[in-house]
Structures are given as C-alpha cells and as structure tokens.
Write a structure and sequence with these properties.
The complex is a heterodimer. Chain A is of the alpha/beta class. Chain A has nine helices and 15 strands. Chain A has a single domain, classed as TIM Barrel (Alpha-Beta Barrel), CATH 3.20.20.80. In chain A, a hairpin with a 2-residue loop joins β3 and β4. The radius of gyration of chain A is 21 Å and the shape is globular. Chain B is mainly alpha-helical. Among the domains of chain B are: 160 residues; 142 residues, no CATH class; 62 residues, no CATH class. Helix content of chain B is 62%, strand content 1%. In chain B, α4 packs parallel to α6 and α21 packs antiparallel against α23. The radius of gyration of chain B is 34 Å and the shape is globular. The N terminus of chain B is likely disordered. The chains are: A alpha/beta, B mainly alpha.
Chain lengths: 307, 674
C-alpha cells in the first residue's frame, strides 16, 4: 500500500465514522443549564411566563419552529411558529423541529438542506440572533432509525449548518436507549410519555384482589426502571426533560386527566441522576405555559432544576 | 382577524390525520341547531361569485373567479376601472395566498418588505377610488390591505366613518366582517363576537371561543350578558359536543368532527342546572333555547321521561324563530323514539315532516335532523311496515334506499311499486307517496334485471319488453352493450375496448334492448336443453356456460346484471351465482367424447373468474422490508387447481396435441412449472 492509498483509506475511515465527534471534539455537559421547551404556534410570552424564566434562571429555550409532516407523500413544513415577541435578554433560543416518524420511512432527497435553510431564513427574517444549536425531535423506531440517522448526518454536514451552527441535538425516548446512539452532539432524554396509555387503571380479580396497579402514562417510575441500567453506558451526552403538562382524554365517555405528581418527577430525577450524574447538568421542563407553571409550587420547580 | 382565523383553521385542519381515503356517509347529524349553520364565508363566496357571473353574463354551473377572464371582458367593454380593480385585487390575493400556505421557502425580509410594499400600493390605489363607481369594492380592498398590514385601528375608524355609510351589499358585509376582526385585535372582543354571531361567521367565533366552551365559560358569558348574541353559538356547541360524547359510546361516530370538546356527564348535568336557573331568572329573551338544550341533554344521557317533559315546555316558550323551530325538531325526535307507530303517531309524523320540508326550502340544514331521525329511529320503528320504512328512506334520498332496491326480493319490490302507484289513504302516505317519484322505465328495468339475476328468463323478458331501447342508449354502459357480445368465450378472448371507443363522446345507438335479447336467448337455449340429443347437449351446455360467465359481474357483459362495474363487487342478495351455473354446465360439457369440445371445456374450467379461490395464492411478503415481494404458493385444494390438474391430465393423452390457446396460456404454463 503506497502512501496515497493509505491517506485515502484514512480519510474514508474518518468519513465513515461520520458523527460530529469524529474531529476529536466531543460535546460535554459541563455548564449547568435550566431550560424549557416552547411548544406553541406563536412566540408570545405573558408576564407569568416571563417571570418564571427569570425566577427559575432559565437560560435556554428549545423553541418549536415548525413540524415536518407527510403531505401527499412529501415531507412538508407545518404549523410554523409566528414571532410576535422575543425571548428575554440572555436566554438562548434553540430552534427545534418535530419530524413525524413516517417522514423517515425512506430517504427524501434534499430534506436536510431544506430544513436547515428554512431555520436559517426564519432566524434572519425575524432577527433571531446568536443561535448556535438546532434540535430535531423524532420518535424514530427500528424501521426509521437508519434513515433518521443518515438524515441527521446530512443536517450536520450541510454547508449551511456548518457555517451557522455548532451544535446538533436530538431527542431520545426511553425505548431508543437500546439502539445505537444517533449522530448528534447530545441527546435530550425525554422522561415523559413513558407508559402504555391503556394501563392507567388498576386491575382487580373478580374476588377483589389487586392484579395490577394503574400507571401514570405520562411518567411512572416503574416504566422508567427497566431502562435505568442502560443510562450509564449510553454513548452520547444526555440532558433530561421532565413533564409538567396536563394530558386530557376521554375514555368510554369519561374524561380522564393525567398529570404527574411532583414527588414522582423528583423520584425519577433522583433515579436517573444516580445512574448518570451528567443528567443533572441540563434540566428541561416540557413545556412553558402559564397553566403548567401554576400547576406546581415554585419550590417544586426549584427542586426539578436543582443541579 | 379574518386572515388570523383562516390561518388558525388551516393549522387545525392540517393537524387532523388524513383519513379521507374512505368516505362514509354519516347519519349522526347534529340535532341541536339554534342558528342557521351556513357560514358567512360560504355566503360571501356565493354572492361574490354570482356578482362576477352577472358581470360576465356567464351561465357556467361551476364558475370560479378568473382574473384574466374578467380583465379581458372589461377591456372589451371599455371598463377600465374594473380592469384596474381586478389587477389590484389580484395583487392583494397573491399576498394573502403567500401568507396562507406554508412551503419550504420561508419568506426573506425582502419578500416581506416587497409584500408590505405591494399591500401599501394597493391600499393607496384603493383609497383613491373610494368615490368611484366601484366604491364598495375598493373600500373592501382598502380594508383588506389594512388588515394584512396590521392597521386594525385604522380599519375600525374607516368602518365607522365610511364603510358603514355605504349601500348594503356583500362588499359592505365583508367590510363589516373585517371591522369585527379589527375590533377583536384592538381589544373589543364583545363587540367583535356580536358581529361575528350576527353574520354567521362561526369559524371566527370558534377561534375566539375555542378555549371558552365549557359550562363554566357559558355561565360567565351569561352573567356578563344574559342575551349575549354568542350564547346560541356556545350553547349549540356544548349540546352538540354532548351528542358527540354519546355517539362515541354508541359507536355511531366513525371519524368524529372538528373542534370536539369532551363533555362529561357531570358537566352536562351542570349545564342542565344552569339552564334551569336561566329560565327561572327570566332575564333571557330566549328561554326556549335554554329549555330545549336542557331537554335534549337529559334525553341524550338517558332520562327520556324528563327530556320529553322539558321539551314539551320548551316548545311553548318564547325565543327567536330558529330556536323555536329547533325545539320543535327535537320534540319530534324524542317523541319518535318513545312512540309506538299507529295512526296517531303517523299523523303527527306526517304533519312534522311536511313542516320540515317547507322549512328546508329556506334552510336545507333542516333536512339533517330528518336524516338522523329516519336512519336511527324510524326505519327500525317501522320494521313491520317495510313499505313505510323504505318510503321514508326514499323521502330523504338515503343511500340505503338504493341498496334496498338493489338487494330486495323481487316480490317485495313489486309490492313497493304497487304501493307507490295506488292512491294514498292516510296522512303519512299522503306525505310519503309524492316523494317516491318512480320512473316506469326504471322500475320495469329493475324488476326485469332482478328476474335476470334469478335466471327467471321468461319473467325477466316480460318486464324488460316494456323498456324502450332509448332507455338503454342513455345508460353509462351503452358503449359496452354496443360493442361486446355474450357469445364470445371469455377464457379465450377478452373484449377490451380501445380508449377511443371507451372514452369517446359518441352517443351510442343500440340496435336492440340488450337485456331483453339476452333473456329471450337464454330462455330459448335453456328451454331446448332438455330436449336436445345427447350428442348436441354438451355443446349447448358449453354455449350456455359462455353466456353465464359473460353475464356475471366479472364478465365482459356485466351490464346485463349491473349498472356499473367495480372490482369490489360481490354476489348480492337475491342473486343466483352465475359462475356456479357456468361451472356446472362446463363440467357436464367436459364429459363429451368430442376431444376438441372436451379440451375447450376443461380449459374453460381453469378460468380464474369462475372461482372465489385461485389455484395459487400470492401473499405479500412483509418479512423482508428491504425487498418485499409477492410470493407464489400453490393452493391444491382450490377448484381451479383441480381444474388445471384435469386439463393437464387430459393434455397428456390428447392425440390431437395441445391447442394453441392452451399452450399460450401463461397460468397453464405457470401451473406446469410447479
């Protein structure tokens, strides 16, 4: 093997590793960060929400810019955010895009480029400055995983991304911990929607014996437990996101409301941080909204955001 | 506001899962309608479209506004003001469309600046034409531009000083609608809602009140103004959401409707309490609205006795005409559920249906409750009087009527025809019979075809002889009837028509009544079958089998038994399986000593359309998601497989050699490979 061929081989190997850590740099969760998701279609904060950002020392907002959904077999942007307000000074904005899983059932030529370009244009048009990160949210499965990972690589390798941003993050559901990690700088571990929505009620036998206790479909320690052992070795830096929302649904004509008790959130927080101390670095709540702020005491939020 | 509302609605619509691939007719129409549900947007579209048509002198049924067409017409007419108006209207509409639709190309600052500039220019242009002949149109354009430019306060002032003084027209109504949006944007929500409610802009009201539709919110609205114009809308929404909740329990609801808010029984009871106190307080000018809401909720949640007692009170109460009508419709529905059919109820039903017919001429939404009433209550109620039940279905133009005609026994159909053609004796009959309107040709064809499906050829011919050829010339299948022959062996020759024939505009002139000719031929051939000598009989069996296979819904001459062809078609009620007949005849024919006929018969028995189950199964292999493919699995138990085996066995000893039509058959070749 001559020198040139060896060099080519080295380049090929480096290219195949593909992920953003390949240059020797690996993102680390060093600084403590308090963050929230913003998941509405209009960026407008009321006084309660502004006050919350200030009091809880929120320095990062993962702001949903738009969704990508399949329309006539083509992925298209949907429910784009309108900007009628700005975030308080000093709060970093992370454009976040939710992509439905079916968009990743096959490769769509140029999708990554279009997505990054649109985010850039939204920032430019609306004078959003200082953005250094993009987050992609997708509930990928074994079927869509490879396409999604290839898509993330395309995003991070696109010239627009390289020239504008330095970080790419993605969401990680508990069930995705068993898969190889996505090619992103870090993942946000979604500690919500963890349970089977059908198992929210206890089951008893005819003679009244308790067969199975009901589980909170938003977050239940018993659903998190089986995944705890995977946390330590998961080869991607992780942040943690906790639910503070209300989920309403009607089952057989009866309205059922689900919220997570603050004790349960904190129990899960303690457990995951015990397995992986890094998770106490960046803490996110889903999602910023006056109703959600008023649902818990300020002390509860302080404990959730405790590093 | 309008733009905001449209965008909001589109967002909601876009979020609805695309489940539109299958359309299922619903019968669970909302019964509670305290206002005319026709949307302001639809009304505005309709009137403006008619105005454009009138300007152009167009009679086009499906007219839609085309700027170029209007400009060209206006130029020819020398109407330069109209030309400039349409040019500017186009510019405005383009800006509105850009804002409305999401695409991968997000607008740049320059795009937005350009859009703003365009709107500004159009606005200035429109402002300069406020005293012209087309002042209303230009005033509307001016307000539209202001709305897009966010100049809501200016729109409020403009309406008060100028717009409101203009002559009544749809443009003035649209201006007022924009004014209401501007009021909303500038903080005068109550005044905005009042205008939206008055105009019937339910979309805008829903956007405004989306989060305020609970019993608690309705109570607050009532407390702030007992006669708030929004209350009929909110109450209607609440009661209909109760209906959704109940329908979901009863599985009536397949897809659900937009904007459903889940209502619990507890909240529904709170609403009943609120309605009781509203009526007793006496502050409302529409007690009928509240009382009928209470009655219908009680009834839906199972308290029929109380519901009926309350609706009896409601129909005697005061309120707007539409609300009184609503109570009357509810009373009919509730009474019908509890009633036992008899002359007293029949008379009441006839009286109410006649009244609904009259009302529906002004507002066709009145027909919706009738559809629900007939499908969910009356058809089963009159199950022991099938002629009344089917006449009710016809009276509401139900798809189930068509199904009834298609599947009912011929004897029952004859009873129905007789019922329709005799004078009415009762009030209910007097209502029902004029709604039936049967065409003699249609009925004769239908009865004849039913006899055809039963292979009762003589009787079929008697009825079909009454139908003129001209009737069949007008049928969609005339092209096929004119170009296909039932004597052609379908297993050897398929009678495909070229596109030039199939999709030509030619008015086909048939030489004979195809069904009558077929029925007579079949009657003759079958009648002769039993007297034929044993030598001639196999050939006759074969020829009859050809005709049975052709007349089957999978055959080329499907039009003999059907009005249309569908790959989803199946054997219907009260229909003989023609392919089973064909198979029986072919089996008999295959026993012939004539080797050529035997080969043809055995080959015909391999024809796939004669069987429900094919000789080989081709399941889709999903186990290999990377390279899915059809698999081929033999199905030796199938009759087709056995037919192939018999043919192969015959061909092995066929001294004349395998005929070309057999050796060319790809299925036979495939069978040989297995």
């Amino acid at each position: 093997m001559n020198m040139n061929r060896a060099l080519l081989l080295l380049i090929a190997v480096l290219a195949m590793t593909g992920c953003r850590q390949s240059g020797g740099r690996r993102y680390e969760m060093t600084a403590d960060q308090n963050a929230v998701y913003y998941w509405r279609t209009e960026l407008r904060l009321d006084s309660t929400e502004r006050d919350f950002l200030k009091k809880q020392h929120i320095n990062k907002v993962y702001c949903r810019y738009f969704d990508v959904v399949m329309q006539d077999s083509v992925p298209m942007p949907n429910a784009t955010l309108t900007f009628t307000d700005t975030l308080p000074e000093g709060v970093e904005l992370v454009p976040t895009v939710f992509i439905t899983e079916d968009c990743m059932h096959r490769r769509h030529e140029g999708l990554a480029e279009k997505l990054v370009r649109r985010i850039c244009q939204m920032n430019e048009t609306n004078d959003i400055n200082g953005v250094r990160e993009i987050q992609i949210d997708c509930d990928y499965t074994a079927r869509s995983r490879q396409t999604y990972y290839d898509f993330l690589k395309e995003v991070s390798h696109s010239s627009l991304f390289i020239s504008h941003y330095s970080l790419l993050s993605t969401t990680i559901r508990l069930h995705q911990l068993s898969m190889a990690p996505p090619p992103a700088d870090y993942g946000v571990l979604m500690l919500y929607n963890t349970g089977d929505p059908r198992r929210f009620m206890e089951r008893r036998s005819a003679d009244g014996r308790l067969l199975e206790e009901g589980r909170n479909p938003i977050l239940d320690m018993r659903d998190v437990k089986p995944y705890l052992r995977r946390l330590d070795g998961y080869p991607l830096p992780l942040a943690a996101a906790y639910p503070v929302y209300l989920w309403q649904r009607t089952i057989h004509g009866v309205r059922v409301e689900h919220t997570v008790e603050s004790e349960e959130i904190l129990r899960v927080k303690q457990a995951v941080e015990h397995e992986r101390p890094e998770l106490r670095r960046t803490v996110i709540t889903y999602h910023l909204d006056k109703e959600n702020i008023n649902r818990y005491k300020p002390e509860t939020y302080e404990e959730i955001y405790h590093h | 506001m309008k733009k905001f509302i449209i965008i909001s609605l589109l967002t909601v619509l876009a979020a609805v899962p695309a489940a539109a691939c299958i359309w299922v007719e619903t019968n669970n129409y909302y019964l509670f309608r305290a206002y005319n549900p026709k949307e302001f947007r639809m009304h505005a579209d309709e009137v403006t479209t008619n105005n454009w048509k009138a300007y152009l002198g167009s009679n086009e049924d499906y007219f839609h506004f085309r700027a170029d067409e209007v400009k060209e017409f206006a130029r020819k007419k020398g109407d330069l003001l109209m030309v400039s108006y349409v040019e500017n209207l186009e510019k405005y509409l383009e800006c509105a469309e850009e804002k409305r639709y999401e695409s991968w190309r997000y607008p740049t600052k320059e795009d937005l600046a350009q859009r703003q500039q365009t709107l500004q220019n159009v606005r200035t242009y429109a402002q300069g034409k406020l005293k012209s002949r087309l002042r209303s149109q230009h005033a509307l354009l001016f307000m539209r531009c202001n709305m897009m430019l966010g100049r809501h306060a200016e729109n409020v002032t403009f309406w008060v000083t100028t717009g409101s003084t203009m002559i009544e027209s749809i443009y003035r109504d649209m201006m007022r609608n924009i004014y209401a949006g501007a009021l909303y944007k500038t903080g005068s929500e109550e005044a905005a809602a009042a205008i939206f409610a008055e105009q019937g802009d339910w979309e805008s009201l829903m956007t405004m009140y989306y989060e305020r539709r609970s019993c608690k919110a309705i109570r607050q609205e009532y407390l702030s103004n007992p006669n708030s114009p929004v209350l009929p809308f909110l109450l209607t929404d609440f009661v209909n959401n109760c209906q959704e909740a109940i329908d979901t329990q009863n599985d009536y609801n397949l897809e659900g409707k937009l904007f459903i808010r889940d209502i619990t029984k507890a909240e529904a009871q709170q609403m009943c309490q609120l309605a009781t106190s509203v009526v007793s307080e006496g502050k409302t000018t529409n007690p009928v609205l509240w009382q009928s809401a209470k009655a219908w909720i009680e009834f839906m949640f199972g308290d029929h006795r109380q519901g009926i007692a309350d609706i009896e009170k409601a129909v005697k109460m005061e309120g707007e005409e539409r609300m009184k009508d609503n109570a009357r419709v509810l009373k009919l529905y509730m009474t019908a559920v509890e009633a036992t059919p008899g002359s007293s109820f029949d008379d009441y039903l006839a009286q109410e249906l006649n009244w609904i017919d009259k009302r529906s001429k002004e507002d066709n939404s009145f027909l919706d409750p009738t559809r629900r009433l007939v499908h969910q209550v009356l058809v089963s109620k009159y199950s022991n009087r099938p002629l009344t039940a089917v006449s009710l279905l016809k009276a509401i133009d139900s798809y189930e009527y068509t199904t009834y005609l298609d599947t009912v026994r011929v004897e029952s159909l004859l009873e129905y025809i007789d019922y329709v053609s005799t004078p009415a004796q009762t009030a209910l009959d007097r209502y029902l019979k004029p709604h039936q309107k049967l065409s003699a040709d249609e009925m004769n064809d239908l009865v004849g075809t039913k006899y055809m499906r039963l292979c009762r050829w003589q009787e079929a011919a008697e009825w079909l002889a009454r139908v003129p050829i001209s009737y069949y010339n007008e049928k969609g299948y005339a092209c096929y009837a004119a170009n296909r022959k039932w004597s052609v062996e379908p297993w050897i020759t398929r009678q495909f028509l070229g596109e030039g024939v199939e999709y030509s505009d030619e008015k086909w002139q048939l030489k004979e009544n195809p069904k009558l000719a077929f029925a007579r031929e079949m009657a003759k051939m079958e009648g002769e079958l039993n007297v034929l000598k044993s030598k001639e009989r196999p050939q006759r069996c074969y020829d009859l089998a050809v005709r049975y296979a052709q007349a089957h819904f999978t055959g080329d001459c499907w039009f003999l038994m059907r009005d249309g062809k569908s790959i989803c078609d199946t054997l219907r009620c009260n229909e003989v399986d023609l392919t089973a007949k064909a198979v029986g005849l072919l089996q008999e024919a295959s026993k012939t000593k004539d080797a050529a006929l035997k080969e043809r018969s055995l080959f015909a028995l391999c024809y796939g359309y004669l069987y429900f189950s094919e000789w080989q199964l081709q399941p889709w292999n999903c186990d290999e998601p990377e390279s899915p493919a059809y698999q081929r699995l033999k199905n030796p138990k199938s009759r087709q497989h056995q037919a192939f085996a018999a043919l192969a066995e015959f061909e092995r000893s066929n001294k004349a050699g395998v005929s070309k039509y057999v050796s060319n058959c790809d299925d036979y070749i495939q069978y040989g490979k297995n």
